[in-house]
Write a structure and sequence with these properties.
This protein starts with a helix and ends in a 12-residue tail after the last helix. The C terminus is likely disordered. The protein has a 6-stranded antiparallel sheet with strand order 2-1-6-5-4-3, sandwiched between helices. The protein contains 12 helices and 6 strands. The longest helix is centred in the middle third of the chain and has 21 residues. β5 and β6 form a beta hairpin.
Length: 282
C-alpha cells in the first residue's frame, strides 16, 4: 500500500462523525468516517475514495487534495504531507490560504442557529452550515470559478438579493477593493491573477471599479434575501477575519423579535427542502 493510501485510510478512521456534524449512531463498524461519508464531505464518488485507498487511483488534482484535507480536518503540516505523498507540490506560501483549521470548522459545525460560511481572502467559498445553504442557495451546486462570490456578483448580478442604494454601491466597491488587497498580499497566486484578468475582460463594471485602485476589506452590509422557502428575510452581514489564516467567516443575523427572526426560525426547520435553484449572491 502506498503512503498516500495508508495515510488517507488512517486519517479517515480517526475522524469522529461528531467532529463533522454527523450522528455517531449505534452499530457503526468503525469509530471514524465511513467511505461514503468522506466522499460526501469531499464532493466525490464513493468509488473514487475506494480506488484512492486501494492505490488504484493516481494523480489526484490539487483541488481534490484540498477537498480531502478539509474533509479530514487535518493540520497544515498534515495537509502538506498529503500533497507531497500524492506527488503534488503543497500550496505555496505566496498563495491565498484555503486551509480551514479545526477551530474554525467547529465554529461552523456548532453554531447552527445563524447562517455562516467561510471564504478565502479572494472570496472563494470553502465551508458553510445548513442554514446558510437554506437561506442563500446550496453552494455545492457551484463548480470552479462559480464558487467565487466576486465572479458571481459581477457576472450574474445579485438576483434574489436586494440592497438599498447605498449598501449596493458599497458592496460592489468593497468586493473589487477586497480583490486588490488580496493581490497585494498574494502576488504569486496564479488563480487569483487569472480571476482578476477574467473579471476585467468580461465585466465593464468590475473594470471601472478596479480602475479606482481602492484598497479595503469588506466588513458589513445589510441585504434582503428574497428567494427563500419562507419569503423575504432581511439580514445584517458581518465579516470576521480568522487570525493567522486570512480566512473570512461571514455571519448573517436578524433583528431580535422581528418578523425576520420568525422567518429564520422557520427556515431552520424547513432547511434545504425547498431551495430555489436560481444563483444567489452571498
Amino acid at each position: 500500500m502506498s503512503e498516500f493510501a495508508e495515510v488517507l485510510r488512517a486519517w479517515r478512521d480517526r475522524v469522529r462523525p461528531a467532529d463533522v456534524g454527523l450522528p455517531s449512531g449505534a452499530g457503526r463498524r468503525t469509530t471514524g468516517l465511513r467511505r461514503e461519508e468522506l466522499a460526501a464531505l469531499a464532493g466525490v464518488s464513493v468509488d473514487y475514495i475506494v480506488r484512492l485507498e486501494q492505490g488504484r487511483a493516481v494523480n489526484p488534482s490539487p483541488q481534490m487534495l484540498g477537498a480531502l484535507a478539509l474533509a479530514l480536518r487535518v493540520t497544515p503540516t498534515e495537509r502538506d504531507h498529503l500533497f507531497r505523498v500524492a506527488g503534488v507540490a503543497p500550496p505555496a506560501r505566496g498563495t491565498v490560504p484555503q486551509h480551514v483549521t479545526a477551530g474554525v470548522q467547529r465554529i461552523i459545525d456548532r453554531l447552527g442557529d445563524v447562517p455562516m460560511a467561510v471564504f478565502t481572502a479572494s472570496h472563494d467559498i470553502l465551508l458553510w452550515n445548513p442554514l446558510w445553504a437554506a437561506l442563500t442557495g446550496d453552494p455545492s451546486r457551484y463548480v470552479g470559478i462559480e464558487r467565487n462570490l466576486v465572479w458571481r456578483h459581477f457576472m450574474w448580478g445579485h438576483e434574489g438579493v436586494e440592497f438599498d442604494a447605498q449598501h449596493e454601491e458599497d458592496f460592489a466597491s468593497d468586493l473589487a477593493a477586497d480583490l486588490r488587497t488580496a493581490v497585494g498580499r498574494y502576488p504569486h497566486d496564479g488563480a487569483l491573477a487569472q480571476l482578476v484578468a477574467r473579471l476585467r475582460a468580461a465585466s465593464d463594471e468590475f473594470e471601472h471599479r478596479w480602475g479606482e485602485a481602492r484598497v479595503a476589506e469588506h466588513r458589513s452590509s445589510r441585504k434582503t434575501v428574497t428567494r427563500t422557502a419562507v419569503g423575504p428575510i432581511s439580514v445584517d452581514c458581518d465579516v470576521l477575519t480568522v487570525p493567522g489564516g486570512d480566512l473570512r467567516i461571514v455571519v448573517y443575523t436578524v433583528v431580535p423579535g422581528s418578523v425576520d427572526e420568525q422567518k429564520l426560525d422557520l427556515l431552520r426547520v424547513t432547511g434545504l427542502q425547498s431551495l430555489t435553484t436560481a444563483p444567489l449572491s452571498g
